[in-house]
Amino acid sequence: MAPAVVLVLTNEGFGSGAILDGQGHVITNWHVVGANPLVVVVFKPKDGTELTKELAFLATVEKIDQVADLALLKIHTPPKTFTYLPLGDVSTLAVGQDVYAIGHPEGEVWTYTKGIISQIRPNYTWSTNEDVVHRAKVIQTQTPVNPGSSGGPLLDDSGRLIGINSFRSQGEGLNYAVAVDEIQAFLKRERSRESLLRQSRKPQCKETYDTTGQGWTNIVGCYTLASTPPPDLWFVYRGPRGPLAYGALGSVVKGEIDTVISSRDQQWQNLEYYMDVDCNGTIDLIGYMDKGSVEIDRYRVPETTLRMVTLAKELDNAIKRGGIPYSTLRVCQ
Fold first, then answer.
1. 28 and 108, same structural domain?
2. Does the active-site annotation cover 276?
3. d(Cα 244, Cα 238) in Å, to the nearest integer?
4. Active site residue 150
5. Catalytic one of 25, 31, 104, 134
6. Element (H, E) at 174
7. 231 preceded by cis ω (within 30°)?
8. Could you tell me if 257 and 289 lie in one domain?
C-alpha cells in the first residue's frame, strides 16, 4: 500500500497523495496544492533508501474542489510501473472498524498508523488556514494524523481507499478524512468547484456603479477593512435580476491581474477567463463559460504568448466608457 502513496511538494510546503490509477492520477487535498498549477510528487524509495531526484515527477493540478477540499493531479511522465489504490465503498464502513493511514507527518515520510472509525458525519463543515469553509461527508477517526499527512489515504483492512485524511481537531485526538463517496463524486465532476464561503471575512460593500446607464447597479466594490480603500472585493452582475457573475479577493491596486473575465457580447452570454496562475504576467490558461452556465465549462492553453494588462488603467477606462470587460479582479501579490 505504501508505494501507492506519494509525497506532494509545493513552493509553500508538502503533503501526501494517493495514486488512483495506471494513468498517474493522484488524489490529495486542495489545501495541500493551493493555487499552484504544478507540483512535484515523489515516489517511495525501495528498501528505505534516501529520496533522489529520479523519484520526483512533475504533476499538473487538473481540477480542484474547494468545497470538499480535494484536488486531482496528473503526473506528466510517470514511471513505467507503479502501484495504485482501489477505491472502497463507504456503505461497508462501520463505527469501531479498524482503519489505517499512510502519510508524512512532520516530515517523517511514509509513516503508517492504525486507528478506528469513531463516527461517519455527513455534510460536515470545517475550515482551513486558507479561511475557506469546507463541507463534505467525513470519516471521523482516532488515528494519529499530523501536518504532512494531509492528502494521504485512509484505508480499510483490504487496503482500499476509503477517505483522504484532511484535518484534525486540536486537543481532542480526533482526525477527519473526506469520505470515498465524496472523492467519487469529485472524480465524475467535469469542472473544478470553488467555495464561495470564507471564514472571518465579512466585507462591507460601499462602492456601486451603474456602468450600463440602465438604472441598476452592475458593479459593487467591497472592503474587508471598510476604512482602507481601495476595495478588496469586486462583484459584477450580468443583469438586474441575473446571477452573480463572480467575486474574488485581492486588493485592487496597480499591478498585474492574475484573473480576468472578458465578455464577447453585450449580454454577457459567453465569458472567457484569462488566468495567470503563476503571477508572471503571462496568461497560462483560458477558461470558457457558455451561455447559461454558472461555472467554467472548459479550459484551453493559449497557442501564443498573451500578456496581462495593468488593472488600474483597465478598470478606470471601463467605468468611463460605461461598461466593464471583466467580472473578476484579483491581483498577484
1. no
2. no
3. 7
4. yes
5. 31
6. strand 174-179
7. no
8. yes
pLDDT-based confidence at residue 207 (cuts at 50, 70, 90): low
Kind and range of the H or E run holding 319: helix 311-320
| Whether 109 contacts 51, CB under 8 Å | yes
CATH code, 23: 2.40.10.10
Domain assignment present for residue 83? The answer is no
Quick one: residue 181, left, alpha or beta (phi over 0 = left, psi -120 to 50 = alpha)?
alpha
Give the 3-state secondary structure of residue 30: helix
How many Cα atoms occupy the beta-carbon half-sphere of 165 within 13 Å? 35
User: Three-state DSSP class for 67?
Assistant: coil
**Domain end among 188, 218, 246:** 188
One-letter amino acid at 230 equals P
Bigger pLDDT: 313 vs 57: 57
- Are 176 and 138 in contact by the 8 Å Cβ rule? The answer is yes
Which structural domain, as residue segments, surrounds residue 133? 90-188
pLDDT tens string 239-248: 444 333 333 3
Sign of the alpha-carbon torsion through 222, 320, 329, 188: positive
Placement of cell 456601486 in the chain: 208
The average confidence (pLDDT) of the chain is 73
* C-alpha separations of 323 from 179, 214, 268, 320 in Å: 45, 11, 11, 8
**Domain contains 81:** no
How far is Cα 142 from Cα 115, in angstroms, rounded to an integer?
5
Contact in structure between 60 and 38 (CB atoms under 8 Å) = yes
The question of whether 31 is a catalytic residue gets the answer: yes
- DSSP state letters, 243-276: PEEEEEES---SSBEEEEEEESSTT--SEEEEE-
Catalytic residue chosen out of the listed positions 16, 118, 150, 192: 150
CB 248 within 8 A of CB 224: no
Q: How many domains does the chain have?
A: 3
pLDDT at 84: 94
